[in-house]
Write a structure and sequence with these properties.
14 strands, binds (2S)-2-hydroxybutanedioic acid, alpha/beta, three-stranded antiparallel β-sheet, 2 domains, six-stranded parallel β-sheet, 13 helices, binds nicotinamide-adenine-dinucleotide, 19% strand, L-2-Hydroxyisocaproate Dehydrogenase, Chain A, domain 2
Length: 328
């Protein structure tokens, strides 16, 4: 059988998330045992020596499928011919900060990188991880000639956090939790939707009798989990963030199992009344052939609608901020 090849760019590759991403991308776990992997690593110039150290370690892993590693501080080189762009490189927030506080510091990174993404394969997929992820993805999309539907921002970490909380509360394995939607922004306004989620094929509200918990503590726990981790670790999530980014890649590469969906922030097409073009987390299904659709006709209660309105309002504000700073 002819072997396949995939070329993946990772920005901020010398950082914490980069360190957790690289070995898993090269091992064959993500694209399969028949797919050769090229890694194109982008860093700012002062971080190149540290990145060389990471590359030495990658070489010392002797991954059979890893055919080439490119190290560069030039986004045009990093994105040349890639199939996937994982845009991680950006400052993380510290204790007491909101992700939105990073907007004017990190936003400018995504103007030049958006333009450099014109060098990617026209079917490439781009995942923005660097915070504030939704609005950074909006900036990159606006500066690139790639089709809008090639861009997404990471809310899979929030989905995984929500599934883990629901599974623990119900006393079931995490695999029993499906149909988990994160609506909106990867921020403290996001709405993790237990009303449409399932446990072992049953509505969550039928399985978990503590409805007060589902409508309050569960939601705030997921919304504030990033801050809780920063408080405990002194730095932001990296292992779980890398894991979620790779789950996102695998979900877009595969056909979504019938009846299920996953969450990703993608450009709104007006579904559920969300302003068109906003980078908004929706329930999505992948065809497994490079395309996806937003799941339609989910039941949105008054409670949910209020939360969805709040997260949409925050994203509109972020958009106005970056537009005002000339970043769109
Ligand atoms: P880190 O500080 O360890 O690493 C970031 C790396 O990016 C550094 O090596 C830095 O040199 C590099 N970098 C900065 N500007 C760059 C540029 N213009 N081009 C290329 N590289 C550049 O941070 P980290 O822990 O790896 O986190 C990275 C980002 O991901 C942060 O913004 C963080 O908040 C975000 N994050 C998002 C999620 C999510 O779910 N969306 C989860 C965790 C972290
Ligand atoms: C997370 O959710 O863990 C990341 O976005 C990091 C952060 O700032 O919370």
């Amino acid at each position: 059988m002819a072997r396949k090849k995939v070329s993946v760019a990772i920005t901020g590759a010398a950082g914490n998330i980069g360190y957790a991403l690289l070995p898993r991308l090269a091992s064959g776990e993500i694209f399969g045992p028949d797919t050769e992997v090229e890694l194109r690593l982008l860093e700012i110039t002062p971080a190149l020596p540290a990145l060389e150290g990471t590359v030495m370690e990658m070489n010392d892993c002797a991954f059979p499928l890893l055919t080439n590693i490119v190290v560069t501080d030039d986004a045009n080189v990093a994105f040349d011919g890639i199939n996937w762009g994982l845009l991680v490189g950006a400052k993380p927030r510290g204790k007491g900060m909101l992700r939105g506080d990073l907007i004017l510091g990190n936003g400018p990174i995504f103007t030049g990188q958006g333009a450099a993404l014109n060098r990617a394969d026209s079917d490439a997929r781009v995942l923005v991880v660097g915070n504030p992820a939704n609005t950074n993805a909006l900036i990159a999309m606006n500066h690139s000639d790639l089709a809008n539907d090639r861009f997404a921002a990471l809310t899979r970490l929030d989905e995984n956090r929500a599934k883990s909380q629901l599974a623990a509360k119900a006393g079931v394995p995490v695999t029993a939790v499906t149909n988990m939607t994160i609506w909106g922004n990867h921020s403290a306004t996001q709405y993790p939707d237990a009303e449409n989620a399932m446990i072992n094929g049953q509505p969550v509200f039928d399985v978990i009798s503590d409805h007060d918990w589902l409508r309050s503590e569960f939601i705030t726990k997921v919304q504030k989990r990033g801050a809780e981790i920063i408080q405990a670790r002194g730095k932001s999530s990296a292992m779980s963030a890398a894991n979620a980014a790779l789950d996102h890649v695998m979900s877009f590469e595969a056909r979504t199992p019938t009846g299920d969906w996953f969450s990703a922030a993608v450009p709104s097409d007006g579904s559920y009344g969300i302003e068109e073009g906003l980078m908004f987390s929706f329930p999505v299904r992948s065809t497994g052939r490079g395309n996806y659709s937003i799941v339609q006709d989910l039941n949105i209660s008054d409670f949910a609608q209020e939360k969805i309105n709040a997260t949409e309002a925050e994203l509109k504000e972020e958009k106005a901020t970056v537009a005002g700073a000339g970043l769109l």
